[in-house]
Structure formats: C-alpha cells, structure tokens
Amino acid sequence: MDEELKVETQTKNVDVVKEGSIEENIKQEEPEEEDEEALPHSEFLDIFEEGLAMIVQDPLLCDLPIQVTLEEVNSQVALEYGQAMTVRVCKADGEVMPIVVVQSATVLDLKKAIQRYMELKQQREGGVKHISWTYVWRTFCLAFNGERLEDDKRKLKDYGIRNRDDVTFMKKLGKK
Question: Given a cut of 90, is residue 69 above it in pLDDT?
C-alpha cells in the first residue's frame, strides 16, 4: 500500500511539473505570436516578395518573372524533371509565347495554358480587362506543321508535338 501511495505521489508530481512547463512554454510563445500579428499585411507581402525574388534568382528559376505564381514555379520544376514540355506558340505578329504543359497534354490543355499565360501577362502589364476566349477559339486555331489541331481531346504527342516545338496561332480561313 505504501508503494501505491508513492507511485500516485510521483505521478501527481510529474503532472504538476508537466503542467508548469506547458504554462511556461505557452507564456514564452505568446509574445512571438503577438509579433507575427503585429506585422501589417503590406509589410508581410513585401517580405514575402523579397524572399520570392531571391528564390527566382536560382539558375533553374531565372527565366520566371518577378511576380511569379506558384503555378509557374511548379511548371518550371516539372520541366527540369522532364514531366513537362515547352510548346512555343507563334502569333502572326511575331510574338512567341513559351507555354508549359505536361507531357501527356491534350490540345484543350494547351489552349487553357495559353489562356492562363495571356491572363498573367495582362495582369502584369495592365492590358485589356477581358478576352472572350469563345470568340478567340471560334476565330483562330492552332496548327503544327500545316495540320490544324482541331480535336481538343487528342494528345499533343499524337500530332507529333515534342518539347520546344513551334505551334502556330493562326486565323481560321472562311469556308465557302
């Protein structure tokens, strides 16, 4: 019976010590949390953008813009690991858009990637507010080696498109 009392007493002492140390840890952590909360959103964004700018200076990520998105970083990493490919979309005005898509991408995936690329470009440059993509795809098409990419479900590989190949963004000819 004396042994049971000793065990209970020791257990209670341990609990007290544990509780005391938890309270001390909580008291020590509270000022840190207050420091984090005291930082205004604008300053936090500035710190984040500075850190992001340092990351983008990496040779692997140096081609990315300063206001890079997570999607762009992931695409660049996927390119490095061979999980994605760059399709160079050439417009009639001579502009070349480097579009990154996964290796198993379809024509529809390429179209969506072009849309995203243009949206990001407009946000960064402050251009046109809205593009009617329904109109764009009804009026223009993509072509590779003279062949139109008309089937949205067909894979780019089925058309013979590989990494760094040029795809032309051209106006559809009227049917007579």
Answer: no
